[in-house]
Each structure stands twice: as C-alpha cells, then as structure tokens.
Fold this sequence. Notes:
It is a single chain. This protein is an alpha/beta fold. Helix content is 35%, strand content 24%. It is globular and about 45 Å long. Strands 1-2-4-3-5-6-7-8 form an eight-stranded mixed sheet, sandwiched between helices. Helix 3 packs across helix 4. It is built from six helices and eight strands. Residues 19-249 form the Dienelactone hydrolase domain. This is Dienelactone hydrolase family protein. InterPro entries: AB_hydrolase_fold (IPR029058), Dienelactn_hydro (IPR002925), Dienelactone_hydrolase-like (IPR051049). Keywords: Hydrolase.
Amino acid sequence: xxxxxxxxxxxxxxxxxxxxxxxxxxxxxxxxxxxxxxxxxxxxxxxxxxxxxxxxxxxxxxxxxxxxxxxxxxxxxxxxxxxxxxxxxxxxxxxxxxxxxxxxxxxxxxxxxxxxxxxxxxxxxxxxxxxxxxxxxxxxxxxxxxxxxxxxxxxxxxxxxxxxxxxxxxxxxxxxxxxxxxxxxxxxxxxxxxxxxxxxxxxxxxxxxxxxxxxxxxxxxxxxxxxxxxxxxxxxxxxxxxxxxxxxxxxxxxxxx
Length: 257
C-alpha cells in the first residue's frame, strides 16, 4: 500500500486563485497526473478520501475548487450527510453559483490547472487524465476537447446534461477529443435520459473517439458520493474498477487489469 500525502494548495487562474486539494504518493517521485472535476457540492472530506485512493494507486491528483470565484470550498454550507431534504436547500443556494461557471470560464480555469500540473515536480511529464462527477463529467469532456494534446484519458460518472440541444453542450467537444473516454451513467437519472445517452454515444462514435459508455443498473445520479443519499456501494466499486483500469491503460500499457 502506497503512503499518500495530501495538502491544500493554491492554483493561479485568470480570475484569481483557486484553492485545491493535492494528493500524491509520499515519496515525492513524479507520477502521472489526474485532474478531478467534482460534483456541485465541491471539495469536501469524501472527495479528499477519493483523491487519496487514486494517489495510493500511484498517481498525483489535483482536485480544484471549481467555484473559487465565490471563495474557498465549500462555497455554501454543507451538512455532513446530504439526504433528499437537505439536497433541495443546498441546490437552492448553489444554482446561482453554478450558473456563474460558464463554459468559457471553466475552460480558462482548466487551462490554468493543466499549466500548474505541468510545472509540478510530483507530476510526470506528458499528458494527464481527467475524471469528473455529475457536473464535472461535462467539464472533463469540454476540457479534453479544448486541450487534446494535454489529455490522455477521460472518465465521467453519473454526468448530467451531457448531450442537450444547447449549442455549448459537452457532447459537441467530441470531434476535438483524442483521449480515450469512459463514461459510467446512472440508470435512474432524469438529468441524462436515454435520448441524451444515445446522442452522446453517436457523437463519440462519429468522431472516432475510442470510448465505452455503460449504464449502471439501478444506480441513481450521484451513486459514487458516499456522503449523499444517492450512494450505491455496488455501483461505486464498479466505478473504481473502471477508473483504475482506464488509468492503467493510459499510463501503464500492458499492466494487468
């Protein structure tokens, strides 16, 4: 088991400084980098634990506060456990914050995170992997399209609104993506109905993107988030297997899976 060091760091962006969590093996050696885009609830204890788990597998992981323009994470008060009742109130306060993170701002921020990782001694030279959850899945797809030379692999889980009629929908980044893509969809997710899954799959296929899209039976939106009522332990473990397998293919060709 690899010992892990986790620290709070600050990343310069075009609009100030983003607070972030950095997890990496404690020996300080350069490792392949993983940039994680969180769900709307942001950086919190369960997210740090997940980053540590990826770092224990031999990676350097950066988890930025996506809403840093509103201040350090969490930008709204979060209960220790987000049940259905608490979720409504939390999102009432988060929606204005989420609207402020336009695709243009998010892409500019992603460029800043990638530049920061490129200069980090604990991050190996070369492209990085992206992983995203809920809203973060869309951000990961957009980032892969905006910076194709910097991204080797993309994983997204229980993403919402990935293939809408919006002219800025994440699926429209597909023609510019050169990374391998894995997407694990929630089965019971009104934010990503079957017609959007089909549209997303077609966009990736038509663009020639190496990808796999899977629907996790019975899993609700947010199934990886253990501090919410949507958590599904079986689906979460499936997510971990898929994510670590993707990272192995990206950075350790020929490694057993």
